[in-house]
Design brief:
Radius of gyration: 18 Å
CATH topology of the largest domain: Arc Repressor Mutant, subunit A
Shape: elongated
Number of helices: 7
Bound molecules: FE2/S2 (inorganic) cluster
Number of strands: 5
Structural class: alpha+beta
Length: 171
């Protein structure tokens, strides 16, 4: 299996200028794991998003280049799945459910807090780049509504106070 040797290039994001050794190692592991490059496309996109926070056009190109998958395939797969983001995000992503159970249990109070305390509306990022906020459909934990995910952490039974307390943990 061909090893990946890309070590430089144009900036992938505002902050990062090259693929880290960690992501190169993980991509090589993915290539070893799957016989067909296309099978490793979704996990590779996930790796890039985890590392850089979103999938820039350049990141998509790198993924295609590394896996040997056509650009059009990379783009169509990455835009098909709602979990992939195509614009820069804050350091932490708040995904708050506003579907029926969460609405009944008071998620509107939580969106109000995000607005008044952090100046954060849906699909927006705070000025300091600390948080981005996305409204979600049911995230599958209606029994602990209202609920949200911050980065990869799930929280339920939220109140105004617990929301503020939780977000204070994320710098
Ligand atoms: S409606 Fe919010 S978790 Fe199901």
């Amino acid at each position: 299996m061909r090893e990946i040797s890309i070590t430089g290039g144009e900036p992938l994001t505002r902050k990062k200028t090259a693929l880290s050794n960690k992501i190169l190692r993980e991509l090589n592991d993915l290539k070893r794991k799957y016989d067909n490059e296309r099978f490793s496309l979704l996990p590779a996109l996930y790796l890039f998003q985890r590392e850089y926070g979103w999938l820039s056009a350049e990141a998509l190109e790198k993924v295609g280049e590394i896996l040997g998958v056509p650009k059009t395939t990379v783009k169509s797969v990455s835009t098909f799945y709602a979990m992939f983001r195509h614009k820069p995000m804050g350091r932490h992503l708040i995904q708050l459910c506003t579907n029926v159970s969460c609405m009944i249990m008071g998620c509107e109070r939580l969106t109000d807090i995000l607005k008044t305390r952090y100046g954060l509306g849906p699909n927006a990022t705070t000025h300091d780049g600390r948080f981005s906020f996305l409204v979600m459909e049911c995230i599958g934990v209606c029994d602990i509504a209202p609920a949200m995910v911050v980065d990869t952490d799930l929280y339920g039974n939220l109140t105004e106070d617990s929301l503020i307390g939780i977000l204070e943990r994320y710098e």
